[in-house]
Design brief:
Helices cover about 70% and strands about 0% of the residues. It has a domain of about 35 residues. By secondary structure, it is mainly α. The radius of gyration is 18 Å and the shape is elongated. The protein is built from 3 helices and no strands.
Length: about 60
């Protein structure tokens, strides 16, 4: 019984970590490419930061 609970907990932990990783990846895409239609102001907020890292955005 304890092994089943442990496996189920590991499954939920894996799902949660996957969702967090996907959310971070989506946020990174928004920040890097400045998708203004989805989140207005993202491009302007991170404009100088992207240029500091050497990423062209125009």
């Amino acid at each position: 019984m304890r092994e089943e609970v442990k496996r189920e907990r590991n499954l939920y932990l894996g799902v949660i970590l996957s969702v967090v990783a996907l959310a971070c990846a989506f946020a990174m895409i928004l920040i890097v490419y400045g998708v203004d239609s989805i989140a207005p102001g993202v491009h302007d907020a991170f404009h100088d930061f992207r240029h500091t890292l050497g990423m062209p955005c125009h």
